Amino acid sequence: MKYMLLIWSNPENWEALPPADRAALADGAVVEHATVDADLIASGELIVSAALADPVTTRTVRVRDGATLSTDGPFAEAKEHLVGYYMVECESLERATEIAARIPDARWERVEIRPAMDIAGLEM
Questions:
Q1: How far is it, in rounded angstroms, from Cα 116 to Cα 2?
Q2: How far apart are CA 29 and CA 22, in angstroms?
Q3: C-alpha angle 33/104/55, rounded to 5°?
Q4: Coil, strand or helix at 74
Q5: What is the pLDDT of residue 43?
Q6: Residue 6 class from Cβ within 10 Å (0-12 exposed, 13-18 middle, 19+ buried)?
Q7: Pairwise CA distance, residues 7 & 113, whole Å
Q8: What are the structural domains, with CATH classification, of the chain?
Q9: E-strand spans in the chain?
Q10: Residue 56: which pLDDT band, with cuts at 50, 70 and 90?
Q11: CA-to-CA separations, 87 to 1, 42, 66, 72, in angstroms, rounded
């Protein structure tokens, strides 16, 4: 089964931390993410993982009445934003939960687990 592990963050929470704590968390998270990646590569469960650029680089595209509309930047009303993801293939939701719990961001924000679906809408 394939699962998308979505890593969310709230910049207000991040900015509220003292600079030394932010630096320590960021440095530690880099090492922890590298360890999680290496372990998942070794087990054959990692499909891909990536961090995402700052939301200010976002472009949102909508098609309405045949016209393509695009907007730059994040939504002002959004408190949280997606900062990264892992796509894993593992045996169960319980295993995906174990993996998500190892993602360092889960300790101060949240990691959402979603089963991936194929084109027919059935879990892969």
A1: 5
A2: 10
A3: 80
A4: coil
A5: 98
A6: middle
A7: 9
A8: 2-115 (3.30.70.1060)
A9: 2-9, 46-51, 59-64, 67-72, 81-89, 110-115
A10: confident
A11: 11, 15, 33, 26
* Parallel, antiparallel or unpaired: strands 2-9 and 110-115: antiparallel
At 79 the pLDDT is 78
Model pLDDT for residues 66-113, shown as the tens digit of each residue: 999 998 876 666 778 899 999 999 999 999 999 999 999 998 889 999
Q: The pTM is what? A: 0.84
Q: What is the rounded distance in angstroms from the CA atom of residue 10 to the CA atom of residue 39? A: 27
d(CA 121, CA 77): 31
Short-list 114, 108, 115, 106, CA closest to 7: 106
Q: Is 93 helix (H, G, I), strand (E, B) or coil?
A: helix
* Beta carbons within 10 angstroms of residue 39's beta carbon: 13
Encoded amino acid at 26, one letter: A
Amino acid at 66: G
**Contact status, residue 1 vs residue 108, Cβ threshold 8 Å:** no
Task: Count CB atoms within 10 A of the CB of residue 9.
Answer: 18
Do 11 and 83 form a contact (C-beta atoms < 8 A)? Answer: no
User: What does pLDDT average to over the chain?
Assistant: 89
